[in-house]
């Protein structure tokens, strides 16, 4: 039965690959272009063959790269002469790896074809594969085991829904996971679900979420102060972070309502996907809002004190947050389509945050902040408007909620050190 399931999976992957490859490699506005590097998705590397044993770290996109950055830095310090290969699936993830300022090699993650993974492993000679979160590609894991690559899963999570799906194919799951020697879970619930799927207790550890361990950029904090001065914004400012299509119109409606009470209020709206930057800017203008783009700052600003700043840049989220007094986290108003985004960056900056009702991708972190009065969970448009209004009108509340969020952030740090120590116990180069 396992062979049949893996055959059907591989066949489906072959059928889907041309479509996936098209979307991954096409030119998109405001996104890095992959160019000739598309061959890396087929395991064809542009780098020379690596004879020394290396460490392979797989992240998916920007969020995973950010989360794994401290672990990557620690491993670079611990193993200064060992090649480290970081793979991502997206071009934005690749750009983020380049901006880490760490001596690593970036490659795009090959599709989960056995022959592509085998070709990649032969080229880079990884002794260890560290997978960020739960990117469990069956052929990758099986091929890694056969080619004697030690596999660890970092910051692992397993929801009850995913557990039930895997449990239906228990035998196949066990075969796929048989080569994984270490699973570092975010919490005890994740650990318990992996155990119920037959993972040995020796392989399972709870280290907490390494997402709490990122560093705040002083450079972006300073840039935030400079831009606020440029915009003559001495009044209040709120940010709608990582908005998706369908949420922008809601945010602009809320902002227009708030402007009636707070005429000097500035909204920073930062679309999640770069290809939507220009569309959101045009939407702002259409709504009659005095709007400026981040890319326009430095040139003549069309309004002395705009109503809206559109964040049309990548890698500056901390700057946008540092400019703000309140944060609304996008991706949380679209039902099951997205499931929210990481609310820890505003918490790290003591910014009170409001999220919509859909945040299942960050449930534990969000619930933890909400329980400690460091975040508000809103049911919809009116609720978001009510919370923003309340925070704008009550400085004591705003500062208290921000401090509560920051206390939660600081109290949960330290997972990276635990994770690196456990990884080092497995690494033999």
Question: Can you summarize this structure?
Answer:
The protein folds into two domains: 26-209 and 413-426, Rossmann fold, CATH 3.40.50; 218-411, Glycogen Phosphorylase B (Rossmann fold). It is built from 17 helices and 14 strands. It has helices at 2-25, 62-78, 91-98, 114-124, 138-146, 160-167, 170-177, 188-196, 218-230, 248-259, 277-286, 317-322, 344-348, 363-371, 381-393, 395-411, 415-426; strands at 54-58, 84-88, 105-108, 126-132, 150-156, 180-185, 204-206, 237-243, 266-271, 291-293, 308-310, 326-329, 353-355, 375-377.
Q: What are the salient characteristics of this protein?
A:
alpha/beta; globular
List the helices and strands and how they pair.
Elements: H1 2-25, E1 54-58, H2 62-78, E2 84-88, H3 91-98, E3 105-108, H4 114-124, E4 126-132, H5 138-146, E5 150-156, H6 160-167, H7 170-177, E6 180-185, H8 188-196, E7 204-206, H9 218-230, E8 237-243, H10 248-259, E9 266-271, H11 277-286, E10 291-293, E11 308-310, H12 317-322, E12 326-329, H13 344-348, E13 353-355, H14 363-371, E14 375-377, H15 381-393, H16 395-411, H17 415-426
Parallel strand pairs: 1-2, 1-4, 2-3, 4-5, 5-6, 6-7, 8-9, 8-12, 9-11, 10-11, 12-13, 13-14
Descriptive account of the structure:
A seven-stranded parallel beta sheet has the order 3-2-1-4-5-6-7, with helices on both faces. The model has no long low-confidence stretch (mean pLDDT 92). The protein is built from 17 helices and 14 strands. It has helices spanning 2-25, 62-78, 91-98, 114-124, 138-146, 160-167, 170-177, 188-196, 218-230, 248-259, 277-286, 317-322, 344-348, 363-371, 381-393, 395-411, 415-426, and strands at 54-58, 84-88, 105-108, 126-132, 150-156, 180-185, 204-206, 237-243, 266-271, 291-293, 308-310, 326-329, 353-355, 375-377. The chain folds into two domains: 26-209 and 413-426, 3-Deoxy-D-manno-octulosonic-acid transferase, N-terminal domain (Rossmann fold); 218-411, Glycogen Phosphorylase B (Rossmann fold, 3-Layer(aba) Sandwich). With 429 residues, it is α/β, with parallel strands linked by helices.
């Amino acid at each position: 039965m396992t062979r049949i399931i893996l055959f059907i999976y591989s066949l489906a992957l072959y059928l889907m690959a041309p479509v996936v490859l098209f979307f991954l490699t096409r030119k998109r506005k405001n996104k890095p272009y992959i160019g000739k590097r598309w061959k890396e998705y087929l395991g064809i590397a542009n780098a020379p063959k690596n004879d020394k044993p290396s460490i392979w770290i797989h992240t998916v996109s920007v969020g995973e790269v950010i989360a794994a950055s401290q672990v990557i830095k620690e491993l670079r310090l611990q193993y200064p002469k060992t090649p480290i290969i970081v793979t991502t699936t997206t071009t934005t993830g690749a750009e983020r790896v380049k901006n880490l300022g760490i001596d690593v090699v970036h490659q795009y993650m090959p599709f989960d074809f056995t022959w592509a993974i085998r070709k990649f492993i032969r080229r880079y000679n990884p002794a260890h594969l560290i997978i960020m979160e739960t990117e469990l590609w069956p052929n990758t894991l099986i091929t890694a085991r056969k080619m004697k690559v030690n596999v660890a899963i970092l910051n692992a999570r397993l929801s009850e829904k995913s557990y039930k799906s895997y449990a239906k194919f228990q035998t196949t799951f066990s075969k796929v996971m048989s080569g994984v020697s270490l699973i570092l879970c975010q919490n005890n619930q994740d650990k318990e679900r992996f155990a119920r799927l037959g993972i040995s207790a020796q392989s399972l550890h709870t280290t907490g979420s390494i997402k709490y361990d990122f560093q705040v950029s002083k450079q972006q904090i300073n840039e935030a102060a400079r831009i606020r001065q440029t915009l003559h914004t001495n009044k209040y400012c709120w940010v709608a972070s990582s908005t998706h299509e369908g949420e922008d119109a809601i945010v602009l409606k809320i902002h227009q309502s708030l402007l009636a009470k707070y005429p000097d209020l500035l909204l920073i709206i930062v679309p999640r996907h770069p290809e939507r930057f220009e569309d959101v800017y045009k939407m702002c203008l259409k709504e009659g809002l005095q709007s400026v783009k981040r890319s326009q700052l430095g040139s003549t600003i069309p309004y002395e004190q705009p109503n809206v700043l559109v964040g049309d840049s990548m890698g500056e989220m901390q700057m946008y947050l540092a400019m703000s007094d309140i944060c609304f986290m996008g991706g949380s108003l679209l039902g099951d389509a997205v499931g929210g985004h990481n609310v820890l960056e505003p918490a790290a900056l003591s910014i009170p945050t409001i999220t919509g009702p859909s945040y299942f991708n960050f449930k534990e972190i969000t619930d933890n902040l909400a329980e400690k009065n460091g975040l508000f969970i809103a049911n919809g448009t009116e609720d978001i408007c009510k919370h923003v209004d309340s925070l704008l009108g009550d400085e004591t509340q705003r500062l208290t909620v921000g401090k509560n969020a920051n206390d939660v952030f600081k109290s949960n740090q330290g997972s990276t050190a635990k994770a690196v120590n456990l990884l080092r116990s497995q690494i033999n180069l």
